[in-house]
Amino acid sequence: MLSEKISSIFKKISHAALRVGREPDDIKLIAVTKSQPVDKIKEAIDYGLRIFGENRVQEAKIKIAELKNFNIQWHMIGHLQTNKVKDAVNLFEVIHSVDSEKLAKFIDKEAEKRGKIQRVLIQVKLSEEDTKYGIKEEEVEKLIEVCLNLKNIKVEGLMTIPPYFENPEDVRPYFKKLRQIRDELNRKGYDFIKELSMGMSHDFEVAIEEGATMVRIGTALFGQRID
Ligand SMILES: *Cc1c(COP(=O)(O)O)cnc(C)c1O
Fold this sequence. Notes:
By secondary structure, the protein is an alpha/beta fold.
């Protein structure tokens, strides 16, 4: 039952936060609905979920149109190609996957046309085994500087997709690392870098213990995807 899964996830989020002295309310649950049908999303809305994550612009566009009458937020969590930026800026509240100067500039340009300030996160690649996307740690500051010169893009934090490990404890060093990068940026005066989008179905509790402010959860809510 979806309602039970949702309440179980919220409980785990709270417990993980409280274990390390954090406020459960400081963690946003992003329900990842890629490859899930609109009816499932409606059910999730009925049970109180309000932030949804998709990784393909094309698929998201159709769903978002069908659900336009609901007061919900959509986040782009997948890799974004420059030819999809126009749609992405139209559709998404936050884009988690900015990983190049070129993409940032495209987003800024489209956002300007729409009179929008696009909220984004920078995707950081912390190891060679990570997904192919994301920038290296050493390049993060430079990309933030580039974004600071763009008027219609607002960088709010960092995102990472660590390699998969059977044991969630093995992922902990990656989450810790992303937080350290953020804290260091904060020390250097980039105090607007607040969000840490990290943690998925099988490791979100560890991510929260390490400071995640956004967890992206799909299968633990909706079951195995048929993709
Ligand atoms: C699919 C996906 C998720 C959700 O993964 P689950 O293991 O199903 O929770 C999170 N983040 C990104 C970027 C994804 O593509």
